């Protein structure tokens, strides 16, 4: 019995230690936001890599998701003679939930893994030690530009994903399901509220922060060798995906619990 309790206690202590290290890392990252020097070139490169080069995968994911959502809602609504609700449900589903979550998960798959692998490789090859030798703070040079860029550009990606997802539902609704185009667009515009858009963009900012921070944290704390790089990359994606889904629940509760 004592051994079982000890093993449980050791697991809890290890979990708390990880949470503590992550909280310290997050606090240090935020603190560097207000202290010079700044690296605008690194920030611009991160904006391009996280934002612009993610547009194709975000657009395709949202387009096919919106189309599939329209088909599913139409098929389900037909059981209750409620096929006319397709535009409204596609709009609210994409803007409130599917748009932010899918974009966040795609960024976790594409960007978080890339950041973790890049920084972990720099650690293995002692490039981070070289930055310290050159009096350059690794977190300010590597972590802050990526986290800041992801936080700022993710709402834009989420907005683009929302629009493309609604457009995918519009294409399926008008070309496949026989909806009138003008009526479809009017129902979509009339049903959405400002709070829906605000919640979507706010989720995007939070998800971008989480995705980039996870990549930087696991990259900075990776073990040596190729196996360490692989574990850091895998762990960063898993942690980012789980935290994005958890944050989505908390934000949905905060925005729409009333």
N-to-C series of helices and strands: HHHHHHHHH
Largest sheet: none
Low confidence ranges: none
Count the strands? 0
Rg over alpha carbons: 21 Å
The 3D shape can be described as globular
Summarize the structure.
The chain has 258 residues and is mostly helical. The chain has one domain. It has helices spanning 2-31, 40-50, 55-77, 86-124, 127-133, 138-175, 181-191, 194-220, 225-256.
What does this structure look like?
This protein has one domain (38-252). The chain starts with a helix and ends with a helix. The chain contains nine helices and no strands. The chain is 84% helix and 0% strand. The protein is globular, with a radius of gyration of 21 Å.
SSE layout and pairing:
Elements: H1 2-31, H2 40-50, H3 55-77, H4 86-124, H5 127-133, H6 138-175, H7 181-191, H8 194-220, H9 225-256
Task: Write out key terms for the chains shown.
single chain, 258 residues, mainly alpha, 0% strand, globular
